Amino acid sequence: MGIKHQKFMTEAMKEAEKSLNNGGIPIGAVLVKNGEIIGRGHNKRIQLGSSIFHAEMDCLENAGRMKSLDYQNCIIYTTLSPCAMCSGAIILYKIPMVVMGENENFKGQEQYLKDNGVKLLNLNLDSCKKILGTFIESNLKLWNEDIGI
Amino acid sequence: MGIKHQKFMTEAMKEAEKSLNNGGIPIGAVLVKNGEIIGRGHNKRIQLGSSIFHAEMDCLENAGRMKSLDYQNCIIYTTLSPCAMCSGAIILYKIPMVVMGENENFKGQEQYLKDNGVKLLNLNLDSCKKILGTFIESNLKLWNEDIGI
C-alpha cells in the first residue's frame, strides 16, 4: 500500500481506538483534502445514543459545511467498508474515493458506490479486522443494531 | 390520500416550517411506529452548520437508538423525496415505507429505495412544493450545497 494511504489509515485507526477507549464501537474515519486531514470521527452509537453517527458520518459532520467542489478533491479513509447510510452520504457529496481498512467484519454497499463512480481501495489490514472483530465477538447484539440486522 | 397519511405529513410540514422560522432549509420529517410519532426533525444545515442533519437524519437521530425489528414497523414521512444519504439510512435500518410530500423540487434515490424493497408513496402536495420552492428561489447556492451539486 502507498505510504500516503497507510498514514491516513493510521489516523482513522486512532479514531477507532479512541472510540473503543470510550466504550464505543471501534470504527474510525478521516476525510482528507489535497493531502490534509480536514475532518475526523468515529462511531458514536454508544457515546451519543446515536443512530446516525457512524464513523464516516461523524467525520463528515466534523469537516463542517463544504461546497460540492471541495468534496471532489477528497478521499475518505474508513477502517470498515461503508454501510448504506455512509455510502449514501459519500454519493450525495460526490466524494470520488474511499479507502477502507477491511470488509471482512462487514461488507457495505461497495457495488452501489462503484456504480456511482466512487473509486474503492481495500487495504485489507489485520489491525482493522482485529479491533472490530474482537469487539463484535463480545457485543453481537449491539453490533447487529449498528448495521440494521 | 388517506387521513392517516395527511395527519402525519402535516406534522412533517410543521417541522419544515419550524426550520424556516429558524432561518433554515424548510424540509421536515417524522418517524411513525404503529400509528405513533416516535421521532421528528428538520434540516439543520444552517442551524448547526451541519452536513448530515437532513430532515430524515435529524428525525432518525431524535427517535434514538432502536433495534432493527422496531424499524420494521415504521413509516417515515418527509416533505421531500429522500436524497442518497437519507435513502441509505432508510435502507440500512430497513424502514419499509416512505411517504413523501413531493419530488418536484428534488427527486432523490427513489429507484434505489424501490430496488431495496422500500414502498414509496408521493402525496404530491402543493404546500410542500411551495415552501421549499420559494426558499430555493432565494437561496440557490445554499440549496445546491445541501444536495451536493
TrEMBL record, chains A, B:
Residues 3-120 form the CMP/dCMP-type deaminase domain. One of its GO terms (cellular component) is cytoplasm. The keyword Phosphoprotein does not apply. PROSITE patterns: CYT_DCMP_DEAMINASES_2 (PS51747). Pfam families: dCMP_cyt_deam_1. The keyword Cytoplasm applies. This is Cytosine deaminase. It comes from Methanobacterium formicicum (strain DSM 3637 / PP1). The lineage of its organism: Archaea, Methanobacteriati, Methanobacteriota, Methanomada group, Methanobacteria.
